C-alpha cells in the first residue's frame, strides 16, 4: 500500500508536521521563500493526496480541476477569500481553515497599530534609528490619546470582539460596531452599540476593520468613506488589504481627511516601496504579522494537521468551510 502524501506550501512549526508523520503520512514541504506558481502547485500536488496551504496562496479553479484527486485541503489561515470554494465544493474536495486560535494574536496587532499610530511611534523610532532625531522638542509630531475615545469596529466577529475587549479594558473606549447581523451577546458583554455603516464612519475616533474580504467589502473604504470620517480619526486594517482603496487612503491622509492609519494588510502585498503611505509620520505598516507568534502559528499548524488527518480518515474536517460537499 503506497504511503499517503501531504504537500505543504510553506514551512510550518514542527508540531504540525510531527502530527502528520506520526500518523504515517509522508510530508513534503516547499522549501525557500519563493511563492509557488499555479503550475508549480499543480505539479507538486500530482503525487499528493492532501494539501496544507499556508497564507494566501491562491487555490484557483484551474488548480482544483487539475487536482480533483485531493482528499482534502487544510488552510493555515482563517481567511479563505483566496480559495475558489464553489469549485472545491463541486469537486467534492473538503476545505478547512483555522479560526479562533489566532483571534487574540491578531487583535493584539490591531491594538498595537492603534496605539503606535496614535503616538507616531514607528515614525519617531525610525528617526532615532536613522540618526535624524535632533533631540527633545515640546511641540513637534504630537500624538493623540485614546482614553475614553470611541472605537468603531466593522465586523464584530471573533477578532473584532477581541479587539473591542482590549480597547475597552485598556482605555475604557466606547465601542460601536457595524456588522451584517446584530451581536447582542457582544453588545451586553462590551456595552457595544450597533450603528449603521454611515454612523460608524462619522462617530469613530478609531475605526478598525475585522471583516472577511468579499465582493461586498472590497474597497468598502474608498474616498467617499474616508471623506465621512472624523479628521481626527485613525483607520486600522488587519483584515485584508483590498478592503481599503490604497490610493484613496493615501489621498485622505495627505489631505487631512483622517488623522492616521495602521495597516497589517495591504494590496498588493508586499506594498510597493515607493508607496506614499511609507513616507507619512502618522502611518504604520506591518507585513501581515497578525497571527505571527510562536504560540498561534503552532496552534494553527496543529489545527490544519488535525483537519487533514480527519479528511484522510474519511471523516468531516472539524473546521470545514464547505460542508455543502456532504449535501
Ligand atoms: N492580519 C492577519 O494576519 C489576519 C489574521 C487573521 C484573520 N485576518 C482577517 O480577519 C478576518 C476576520 O477573521 P475572524 O476570525 O474575525 O472572522 P469572523 O467571521 O469571526 O468575523 C468577520 C465578521 O465580519 C462580518 N462581516 C462580513 N461581511 C460584512 C459586511 N459586508 N459588513 C459588515 N460586517 C461584515 C461578519 O458578520 C463577522 O461578524 C479574516 O477573514 C481574515 O481576512 C487577518
Ligand atoms: O487569514 C489569516 O489567517 C491571515 O491573514 C493569515 O493568512
From TrEMBL:
UniProt name for this protein: Glyoxylate/hydroxypyruvate reductase B
Limits of the D-isomer specific 2-hydroxyacid dehydrogenase catalytic domain: 6-322
Family: Belongs to the D-isomer specific 2-hydroxyacid dehydrogenase family. GhrB subfamily.
Reaction equations catalysed: glycolate + NADP(+) = glyoxylate + NADPH + H(+); (R)-glycerate + NAD(+) = 3-hydroxypyruvate + NADH + H(+); (R)-glycerate + NADP(+) = 3-hydroxypyruvate + NADPH + H(+)
PANTHER family, A to Z: 2-HYDROXYACID DEHYDROGENASE-RELATED, GLYOXYLATE_HYDROXYPYRUVATE REDUCTASE B
Secretion signal, residue range per the UniProt entry: none
Domain D-isomer specific 2-hydroxyacid dehydrogenase NAD-binding intervals: 112-290
EC number(s) per entry: 1.1.1.79, 1.1.1.81
PROSITE patterns per UniProt: D_2_HYDROXYACID_DH_1
Keyword Oxidoreductase: yes
Keywords tagged on the record: Oxidoreductase
GO cellular component: cytosol
Gene3D superfamilies according to UniProt: NAD(P)-binding Rossmann-like Domain (3.40.50.720)
MF terms in GO: glyoxylate reductase (NADPH) activity; hydroxypyruvate reductase [NAD(P)H] activity; NAD binding
Amino acid at each position: 500500500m503506497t504511503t499517503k502524501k501531504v504537500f505543504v506550501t510553506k514551512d510550518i512549526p514542527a508540531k504540525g508536521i510531527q502530527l502528520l508523520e506520526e500518523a504515517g503520512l509522508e510530508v513534503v514541504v516547499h522549501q525557500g521563500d519563493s511563492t509557488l506558481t499555479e503550475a508549480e502547485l499543480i505539479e507538486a500536488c500530482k503525487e499528493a493526496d492532501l494539501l496544507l496551504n499556508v497564507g494566501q496562496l491562491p487555490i484557483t479553479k484551474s488548480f482544483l480541476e487539475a487536482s480533483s484527486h485531493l482528499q482534502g485541503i487544510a488552510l493555515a489561515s482563517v481567511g479563505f477569500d483566496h480559495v475558489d470554494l464553489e469549485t472545491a465544493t463541486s469537486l467534492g474536495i473538503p476545505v478547512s481553515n483555522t479560526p479562533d486560535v489566532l483571534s487574540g494574536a491578531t487583535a493584539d496587532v490591531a491594538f498595537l497599530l492603534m496605539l503606535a499610530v496614535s503616538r507616531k511611534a514607528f515614525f519617531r523610532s525610525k528617526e532615532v534609528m536613522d540618526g535624524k532625531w535632533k533631540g527633545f522638542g515640546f511641540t513637534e509630531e504630537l500624538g493623540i490619546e485614546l482614553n475614553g475615545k470611541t472605537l468603531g469596529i466593522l465586523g464584530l466577529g471573533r477578532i473584532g470582539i477581541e479587539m473591542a475587549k482590549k480597547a475597552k479594558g485598556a482605555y475604557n473606549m466606547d465601542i460601536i460596531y457595524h456588522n451584517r447581523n446584530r451581536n447582542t451577546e457582544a453588545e451586553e458583554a462590551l456595552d457595544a452599540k450597533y450603528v449603521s455603516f454611515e454612523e460608524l464612519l462619522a462617530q469613530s475616533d478609531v475605526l478598525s476593520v475585522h471583516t472577511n474580504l468579499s465582493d461586498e467589502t472590497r474597497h468598502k473604504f474608498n474616498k467617499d468613506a474616508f471623506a465621512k470620517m472624523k479628521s481626527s480619526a485613525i483607520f486600522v486594517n488587519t483584515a485584508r488589504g483590498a478592503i481599503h482603496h490604497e490610493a484613496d487612503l493615501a489621498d485622505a491622509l495627505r489631505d487631512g481627511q483622517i488623522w492616521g492609519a495602521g495597516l497589517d494588510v495591504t494590496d498588493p502585498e508586499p506594498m510597493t516601496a515607493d508607496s506614499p503611505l511609507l513616507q507619512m509620520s502618522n502611518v504604520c505598516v506591518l507585513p501581515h504579522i497578525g497571527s505571527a507568534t510562536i504560540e498561534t502559528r503552532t496552534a494553527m499548524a496543529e489545527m490544519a494537521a488535525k483537519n487533514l488527518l480527519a479528511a484522510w480518515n474519511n471523516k468531516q474536517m472539524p473546521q470545514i468551510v464547505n460542508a455543502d460537499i456532504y449535501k
